[in-house]
Design brief:
Elements: H1 16-28, H2 32-39, H3 43-50, H4 58-68, H5 73-96
């Protein structure tokens, strides 16, 4: 079990596409078609990430990290947090019914 971060408690994790759409691309000031070309992906793939219809995969994180100069870790961590939150919400009742086992002393 992880300890909640008091700085982010209650905040919904951001899909990396939102960061890309709202902050990164405007700061770069380049057309989306050029960004897609530089990333060596289709425009549709870029649009799907920007609209949060597609996750940032490890390969895409490498591409974004290189393009932005910040490495892949941020992009993967954001996607992981986003995916985990969605799974926790979707499976909350089911997971709640699973017992927590402890090791017995020998």
């Amino acid at each position: 079990m992880t300890t909640p971060n008091p700085l982010t408690r209650g905040l919904r994790p951001t899909h990396p596409g939102e960061l890309l759409r709202e902050d990164v691309l405007p700061a770069l000031g380049r057309p989306k078609a050029e960004i897609a070309r530089l990333l060596r992906i289709s425009r549709q793939t870029l649009y799907d990430i920007l609209e949060e219809r597609q996750p940032v995969t490890p390969g895409m994180a490498l591409r974004l990290g290189k393009l932005c100069g910040n490495g892949p870790d941020l992009w993967l961590a954001m996607q992981r947090a986003y995916d985990l939150r969605l799974a926790a919400e979707a499976l909350a009742e089911e997971v709640e019914r699973i017992p927590t086992l402890t090791a017995t002393e020998a």
